[in-house]
Amino acid sequence: MIGETGTGCGVGLAWLAAGARPGARLVSVERDAHRASLAAQVFLDHPQVSVLCGDWREIYRDGPYDLLVLDGGGQGKSGEQPADPHRLLRPGGTLVIDDLTPARHWPPRFGGAVDQARMHWLDHPGLDAAELRLAPDLAALVATRRFGETSGTPDH
User: HSE (CB half, 13 Å, CA atoms) of 115?
Assistant: First the structure.
């Protein structure tokens, strides 16, 4: 199972579908009805791909996932409640959060303050996470759900 929030017009979803193993199912959620409709049309002939229109939390309905890309909600940015990796990821599953400004200091900062969303993922007790610098002005977080972790509630 592969999940994504923030389908847009389906470019990232197409990339995920192209690299998926045969038999993999893909689910993507887009909040904008017009973009969700466009993306759904792109994947009409691909029954393994589902595009849902709604809030990012709709991604919970088909989880847990082996790979989950949080691009359109669930990252915890701007004070939003972050997604629960224990509900959304299988043990050993991978989470990707992209479109970050690379951290240049510890703790990472954004907008003049400690980046609480990024720290949530980097310090999450159920994840092994790292930030990857992709370009001088672009980074992504990649995390794997630890095996044996059952609680969705961090200890801190």
Answer: 22
